[in-house]
Design a protein that fits this description.
The protein has 14 helices and no strands. Helix 2 crosses helix 3, helix 2 crosses helix 6 and helix 8 runs antiparallel to helix 13. 78% of the residues lie in helices and 0% in strands.
Length: 376
Amino acid sequence: MYSDARAEPDPPTSAPARTGATALVVLAGLACVFTLHWAAALFVPLLMGMMISYALTPLVNRMVRWRLPRAVSAALLLSGIVGAIGSAGYTLSDDAASMINALPGAAQKLRRSLEDQRDGGPNGAIEQMQKAAAEIERAAQERASPPPARGVVKVQVEKSRFNVKDYLWPGALGLVAALGQAAVVVFLAFFLLASGDTFRRKMVKIAGPTLGHKKLTVIALDEINEQIQRYLQIQVFTSALVGMATWLSFLWIGVENAAVWGVATFLLNFIPYLGSTIVTGGSALLGFVQFGSFEMAGLIGGVALVINSIEGYILTPWLTGRASRMNPVAIFIGVIAWGWLWGVWGLFLGVPMLLAMKSVCDRVEGLKPIGALLGE
């Protein structure tokens, strides 16, 4: 006699279990965000070194094909780049210093011009509102602080006098820390370039016991490598074009220190959204100081805005094409999030990090919804 017993299906997951799993995921995400923010001094130089190694790997590979050792090729390439940056900074240091020294005068001149053009003169509506607000604040302070009783000495706390040493010492420490982080980035990039694909082979080896896991890791690493290299190459090319166009345009208009503006535009173009805003506003302000008219300030700022707009909305999307397959809204939100975590460095590293995240999410079954959210 045979029993007619059938295999019972697994019981559905209970609501408390699903709630607990969701809570664990949320807590893990918050812990990751806190760790990234808390250890920014570690992660930022590490990722910067990785980005530089990604960008320079094709050049090092070409030098290796010329029978040069990989370590020697990496050392020569990084030494040349650091030397070129130092030489350019030393050459343009005087012009940059003069621009920085002109900023207080620029702000004061702009304030005077706005006051002169304000309707109503000194007795205008804005001036009267400011006086009324001052009177209200004075009355509130007098009511909140009753006169002291007889025999009680009134004590007034005065602010400490300005001491330049209080500002020079933190500034010097910040400069030393920045130089130390720059040295860490350079040495890390050198070691990554000199090691070649050593870390790549190790990651494939520890990816998993099966051939499928190893193949999936190789595909993901290849895609990350290709995406980031293409993004960085396009960024360097377009930033150089924007810097050259800004320099030549400002030189034709007659803007002082046009070469400094070209270099600044080249560097700031690596920062999405914020870099073009800084160049447009700063060039318009200093253009107003030099020429003394709002028309010339608008012309200079408009030229900078047009150049950055052509690069940002036409040139870069055309060169990138559909290679990254990233959602523009996701890129914008992601760049803001990474900027909140790491400041300016987060704005620079935001897009490469999103490219790497999408490549991994597209290959892992449980993370494919996130990859679809980041994609077009």
